[in-house]
Design a protein that fits this description.
mainly beta; 6 helices; 41 strands; 8-stranded antiparallel beta sheet; about 725 residues; single chain
Length: about 725
């Protein structure tokens, strides 16, 4: 969307006076980009809080773009955009008890990325290339600097052996955000050491970075989400961008502020021959707020610059909203909806983008192919075993074709729904039960909602992706409704049995962008480590027994609860099952299989090897599942906990564990190591999003408009 803004203003210079004889200002940071927030507080000399009134008194940003806002609690939210590489903002705190007592602080604001790089992941065969675009919250100026790296977090820079970058091309205008594009070309031969690398985009040389994860291969596999986001000219293949034509936010004057979209996931047939497009309620039915008969378009508004049909450049109609399982209904348990297909608009084979075989050509994308047709594959405790890794794949609008494993079953999870795309108007918090938990930061993102999740070994439908979240270190988590529940509840709405349209079973290329991610660890406080060392010493005295298969003990860090210590208990790998207590002297134990000589000469590993997926016997999972369902509601009464399920312990992979999802912005009342006789694995995430990016901060801005700008804005047609 093109949005007009006023011209740039002058630049001022500000001096801070952050303290007086009564109080001083403390800040969580002295710099922030447009995606973040800063918390200020006023503190007396004795450390007590001082009640103050917060005010932004001046700033360098152009007046039409604003200086941001600060609330009564001292939380500052930056403006949606800047007119320069950085802008200073002067904030004053005035004592509520004595108006003569004031202090000021100066904050530096820099532009941030409006969304992840496009694409945010790509699989390329040797010699292939892809254009990469970054959009930043700056008008009239600004640039993105590019480099190849070994890590998403700015590791070692890579040379031309890992590919080359074209000259960047930046578009800068007073009427739009700055957009920069570069072309990456894969090397002619596979580089030594790794086939996984990152293209990093950096805003104006600052520490604001966005990564594109690239997987190189010599197998002819070319895959990027650009195919999923594009407007299709012929009959639509699924896995494509789409959504409700009315799914946008506007102000009282009809100015468009934001818009939504998702994935047209699969083709579904009814018992009487009707054909439907399957996706989420929040994609097709605007989280219960759409009307039956609403136009469903391809691509979605998010890929049409928020222009609704029939405006020029808008998507075309491919169906009409027909059925939606209501979210705000206590007994519903899926986020799902159906659109009746417009005759001749959708590929009748049910083909999904990138589910096909590699062509082998350097510039050719993975082809489309239908999933296995029918009622799908049910995931139960019997689906898992110590010898099998169940891999899942999905093709969605934002991240394209990605692959991961199952990390949790029997998952009860709370998901927040909103009335608007910006997630600023709360609607309903839905608690889903018996969901599928999928690990990995790269498996999904906002816009993938509605994608069909399949078993990568046979293309059998397994679930419908609908929500995801992440932490602050690039670790993500996705949730899918079981496909049988989706078809069952929609079938009740439609009054006829439903099944997935598809063909025979076939394997799907499994692109796991998280497979080479470096593990992130949280340091353990020294005092806690000293306690673990004392406990390990005692364990060597009381637990070690060659007859019982326990060879030694040492202090370490828990893999089930980041930041917690553990007593490492070394067990004889030549033995079968070795009994180890779940805690020792109140500290978690971590079981590592090794041999006696490694323990005696000090070469035994300090952490357990973690294997993706669940590898446990059926009876173990059944028992743990019953306990998880019994405990879920009680644990989730704590506002900091928004999910409980069954997973595999990382501290002792022979045991099941409770998976507990904890809100990063809240503190649980308690975090016991053992609940109901099960180890507990805690995963700290931002609460799940359904429309905003899973990694979006609390002040994420729309890429479709310059919020707060006075002047002309493009309207949707009446």
């Amino acid at each position: 969307m093109t949005v007009l803004v006023a011209g740039c203003g002058g630049v001022g210079s500000y001096v801070a006076s952050p303290s007086n004889e009564s109080f001083s200002i403390q800040a969580s940071s002295n710099t922030v980009n447009t995606n973040g927030q800063v918390r200020f507080s006023a503190v007396a000399a004795d450390g007590s809080a001082v009640a103050v009134n917060w005010t932004i008194i001046e700033g360098q940003n152009d007046a039409s773009l604003g200086q941001g806002a600060i609330d009564a609690t001292g939380v500052y939210t930056p403006p949606a955009a800047l007119d320069r590489d950085s802008a200073s903002v002067k904030i004053t705190a005035q004592s509520q008890s004595d108006a003569s007592k004031t202090a000021t602080v100066v904050l530096r604001v820099t532009p941030g990325f409006l969304q992840p790089l496009a694409p945010e992941n790509a699989a390329l065969t040797l010699g292939a290339n892809t254009p990469v675009t970054a959009q930043i919250a700056e008008v009239s100026s600004g640039e993105v600097r590019w480099r190849l790296s070994s890590s998403a977090r700015g590791g070692v820079s890579l040379d031309a052996n890992y590919g080359t970058l074209s000259e960047q091309n930046c578009q800068r205008s007073s009427e739009a955000y700055t957009s920069c594009t570069v072309t990456y070309t894969a090397p002619a031969s596979m580089p030594a050491g790794t086939s996984s690398l990152y293209l990093l985009g950096t805003v104006n040389g600052s520490n604001t970075v966005a990564p594109l994860h690239i997987l190189l291969n010599a197998d002819g596999v070319n895959s990027t989400p650009q195919a999923n986001q594009a407007a299709q000219k012929g009959m639509v293949q699924l896995g494509a961008s789409g959504g409700n034509n009315a799914d946008y936010d506007s102000d009282s004057n009809g100015n468009v502020l934001d818009c939504c979209g998702g994935t047209l996931g699969a083709l579904v047939s009814g018992g009487n021959g009707d054909l439907f497009i399957l996706s989420n309620n929040h994609v097709l039915a605007e989280s219960d707020h759409a009307a039956t008969g609403d136009t469903i378009v391809q691509p979605g508004l998010i890929d049409s610059a928020c222009a609704a049909s029939p405006a020029p450049g808008a998507g075309r109609s491919v169906g009409a909203l027909k059925y939606a399982v209501p979210l705000a209904a206590p007994r519903s348990n899926v986020d799902a909806a159906l659109a009746a297909v417009n005759p001749g608009s959708v590929d009748p084979s049910g083909s999904i983008l990138q589910l096909g075989e590699p062509s082998g050509a350097a510039g050719s994308q993975l082809g489309a192919a239908p999933p296995a047709g029918g009622f799908g594959e049910a995931l139960t405790a019997a689906s898992f075993s110590p010898s099998r890794t169940l891999e899942l794949a999905k093709s969605g609008r934002t991240t394209g074709l990605t692959c991961s494993t199952v990390d949790a079953i029997h998952l009860t999870v709370a998901v927040d729904y909103f009335k608007d795309c910006a997630e600023s108007q709360p609607y309903y918090t839905k608690i889903f039960t018996n969901q599928i938990g999928i690990p990995g930061n790269s498996f999904s993102d906002s816009g993938d909602s509605g994608a069909l999740v399949v078993d990568a070994s046979n293309a059998e439908p397994v679930g419908l992706f609908f929500a995801g979240g992440s932490d602050n270190n690039g670790n993500g988590y996705s949730v899918a409704n079981p496909i049988q529940d989706v078809l069952g509840e929609l079938g009740t709405q439609a009054g006829q049995p439903l099944k997935i349209v598809g063909g025979a079973q076939h394997p799907v290329a499994c692109l796991n962008y998280d497979g080479n991610e470096p593990s992130t660890s949280t340091s353990v406080p020294e005092e806690w480590m000293r306690k673990a060392e004392t406990a390990a010493h005692d364990a060597n005295e009381s637990l070690v027994s060659a007859a019982n298969g326990i060879l030694g003990a040492a202090a370490g860090r828990s893999a089930d609860d980041a930041g917690e210590p553990a007593v490492i208990v070394y067990v004889d790998r030549s033995r079968g099952s070795v009994s180890v207590p779940q805690t020792f002297e109140g500290i978690r134990t971590q079981v590592i299989a090794t041999d006696e000589s490694s323990v005696s000469n000090g070469t035994a590993p300090k952490s357990a090897g973690m294997f993706p997926g669940i590898h446990l016997p059926q009876e173990t999972l059944w028992s743990a599942g019953a306990m998880a369902e019994l405990l879920a509601r009680r644990l989730m009464a704590d506002a900091a906990i928004f999910g409980v399920g069954v997973t595999q312990s990382h501290d002792n992979p022979s045991e099941a564990a409770l998976l507990v999802l904890v809100d990063l912005d809240r503190s649980p009342r308690e975090m016991p190591a053992i609940i109901g006789g099960l180890r507990v694995r805690y995963v700290f995430l931002h609460r799940f999003h359904v429309t905003r990016s899973k990694s979006a901060g609390s002040s994420r801005h729309s890429a479709c408009s310059l919020a707060g700008v006075e002047g002309a804005r493009k309207r949707l047609p009446e």
